[in-house]
Amino acid sequence: MFEARFDLVLASPEVLLQEWSYFWDIILHSQRSPFCSRLLAIIVDECHLVWGWREFRKDYLGLGSLRVRFPRVTMVAMSATITPNVLSFVAKTIGLRSRFRLYKQSIDRINICQFVSMISKKEGNRPLAQLVVGTGAIWSIPKVMIFVDSINCTVAIVAFLRAILPVHQQDYV
Fold first, then answer.
1. Would you call 65 exposed, middle or buried from its count of C-beta atoms within 10 A (0-12, 13-18, 19+)?
2. pLDDT over 90 percentage in the chain
3. Do the domain assignments include residue 99?
4. Domain range holding 65?
5. Parallel, antiparallel, or unpaired for β 74-78 and 41-45?
């Protein structure tokens, strides 16, 4: 049977909770589902999104129904950036038990540099030029995440970064 073949399933709240979805209709509501009988844990990755996206993606607010359906299954909520008030909201919303354990670790990593920089209309994408590093024939752009407000901004940033690389490397961006 399909649902008994997998040991790990990654799914969005929309896939799990929409009444029209296969998961909701066939697996969660089946009394003898092999999937349900083998379920060991429900893990909500980036759980701070339950708070942050509660208006944009309302199905995040329904994750507590999984706790109701699986009261004995371990529920794990993970986030590297959750704040105390958001943690309280998330714990209540997804149904963490009152004596849940909280493990905190700094998000500082030697291989990750985080910074926030506003890019003004006047400067355009020029401040991003510092991402392009190298000498001679070898230039590169390190792995980086840039958050912007639109796809158009993303396209413009890629075009800008590609244009400042040597011609023979522009196709790799």
1. middle
2. 3
3. no
4. 2-94
5. parallel
